[in-house]
Amino acid sequence: MFFNRSKFAFQKLRTFATADNLAHQKLGDYISKCIPKYIQQFSVYKDELVLNVGPSALIPTLQFLKLHSATQFTQLVDIAGVDYPSKQNRFELVYCLLSIPYNTRIIVKTYASEISPVPSVTDIFKGANWMEREVYDMYGVFFTGHPDLRRILTDYGFEGYPLRKDFPLTGYVEVRYDDSKKRVVAEPLELAQSFRLFEYQSPWEQTGSGKPVPKLGEKPKEEPKQEKK
């Protein structure tokens, strides 16, 4: 009886997931027809609708998603960055939006390079202020039109961008408190490697005489019979 209930619940959950995917597919088709010149492509990934747009299309796309009566994505949940060093536009910016009236989410993705900026969306979502500052602090992506684009997490005078794939794990400087100077000082990082001698022989002693393992394709050799005296 329990197995039948579990099987029914799984089938019901799978039906709901399929229905959600169809709803996301219809919403993606509808948005693409409304603003076709801004949407490069859309897809449904893990029960979420993903829109890919260019940097110049970011502002009109977010305005449409927020103000249109059939979407109403009025909440900006987060802005995340991803670094792909092998790509020409190595940075991918991910905008996560939430529509409270329709109880659904959507993801808008755009791209940037080390020298190409992205327009700020602080005029559309006031909460994007600190989010864009965090992306700038971690990846070095510039947002044009931002009212106060400066670092928000790292220390004053920090060099580099910690979440880039080419940033060293140890950083460039060592920050410590100097008791003699009674203040925090930053010194060049020294990576000293002590000399170590490794022994590759096993410390465990073998027990028993053992027998050699024959190679593949070879028949094991028979031991010579001892003559009886």
TrEMBL record:
Catalytic activity: a ubiquinone + NADH + 5 H(+)(in) = a ubiquinol + NAD(+) + 4 H(+)(out)
Subcellular locations according to the entry: Mitochondrion
Start and end residues of each NADH:ubiquinone oxidoreductase 30kDa subunit domain: 52-172
Cited InterPro entries: NADH_DH_suC, NADH_quin_OxRdtase_su_C/D-like, NADH_UbQ_OxRdtase_30kDa_su, NADH_UbQ_OxRdtase_CS
Pfam families named among the record's database cross-references: Complex1_30kDa
Biased amino acid composition, Basic and acidic residues: 216-229
Region (Disordered): 203-229
GO terms of molecular function: NADH dehydrogenase (ubiquinone) activity; oxidoreductase activity, acting on NAD(P)H
Signal peptide span: none
Keywords from the named record: NAD, Translocase, Transport, Ubiquinone
CC annotations in GO: membrane; mitochondrion
Family note: Belongs to the complex I 30 kDa subunit family.
Protein name: NADH:ubiquinone oxidoreductase 30kDa subunit domain-containing protein
